[in-house]
Amino acid sequence: MKIKLEPLAFILFILFLATDLKAGLFKITNRSYGNLTNNPGELDTLFNDFENLVNNNLPDANASTYLDSISNSMVAAQKGLGVDYATMPEIFIVGYGVSVGADLGGQTLSDVIDGTVKADNIRGVGLAASFMGGVNLDILPVDKLFGLDLTKTKLFVNFMSRDIPKLEESFSGKIKAFGFHLQHKLYDDWDFPFPGLKWTGLDLTVGFMASSMDMKITKSLNKSTSRAVTITGSGNTTMTVDYDGTITVGAESSIKSIPIEISTSMRILYFVSLYGGLGADLNFGESTAVASLTNDISLTDSSGIIGTAGGTGSLSLGSEGSPDSFSGRLFVGIQFNVPLLKVYAQYTQATNDALGVSLGLRLAY
User: Fold this and answer.
1) What is the end-to-end Cα distance of the chain in Å, rounded?
2) Are strands 26-32 and 92-103 parallel, antiparallel or unpaired?
3) Handedness of CA 7, 17, 329, 94 (dihedral sign)
4) How many CA atoms lie within 13 A of 301 on its CB side?
5) 40, exposed or middle or buried, with CB in 10 Å at 0-12, 13-18, 19+?
6) Where would I find the beta strands (DSSP E) of 137-234?
7) pTM, whole model, 2 decimals?
8) What secondary structure letter does DSSP report for 150?
9) What is the DSSP string of 233-251?
10) Per mean pLDDT, which of 10-24, 103-117, 283-297 is the most reliable?
11) What integer pLDDT is reported at residue 167 of this predicted model?
12) What is the pLDDT of residues 215-253, one digit of tens each?
């Protein structure tokens, strides 16, 4: 008996479930034995063989590790979207950015750049995008509020809700983001005695970020297989197992983070800014694996000895994972400045092996 399940394994893999599923997830339940209700042994053997064939085509790993890593990747993907570290707007700043986070399983960003990253080692990914806006609170008519010096403080808010572009017709996904940050100048900016070289000071940033990511793929699976068997007391016949159903596979993540950061930047000849900093995050939320395959499996035989038999095929994960409750990180970035327009790229590396890369555009005045 032979059945090809490459479509199923491919769907699981592209959603990064391939590294972290547990064999034995596929089951045939609600079994019916046709005319062999009192002698189901041969049919149970065939059902069990079919289960084994399906499960042997599924990867074998730990689902909880995958979901924890997706959660940590979502935290890393949040960074760089809601705060500006290199611009000193006199009044306001607005922009848009996209970001991806990943746990590469001990691999580095350089492995990705040079093309040597091994997909089998990737433990999880996270996607994020957001509009952001910021205002210099120095424009307010008061200088202090609850002891906070508003002349040295900026307020940032970011938000997003959009569908993920379809990889194919059967794919669906959505990302959401919301956050706010306060950034306070601890040490003022300073001009070097060299033309065009400026230190923008030292900033303390605190805030709150929430993001979610839902991804699903639904595929039709129509498979059949046959083999000749001998039914005790009844003779020889050819059994055919048919499966006709759909599979839905994906991940749902909802992550919240409370960051605190120290950052600084250097502006060179106005056109280029280099920035970096250290951060720590308190993290909450969970990621849930979505995997279901439920439809009819029918079993018939060529001689009519069995009649109509069958069962229900099911594939269910139902596992949950969460981010590390506390994680540290460093981040570095580069920003290109022209009048009003800013283009930036940022790299974030967390202490739990998650990393993030964000890109975006901003307008400042």
Assistant:
1) 70
2) unpaired
3) positive
4) 23
5) middle
6) 144-145, 148-149, 153-163, 171-187, 190-191, 197-231
7) 0.78
8) G
9) TTEEEEEEEEEEEEEEEEE
10) 283-297
11) 64
12) 887 777 677 777 777 766 667 888 777 777 777 777 889
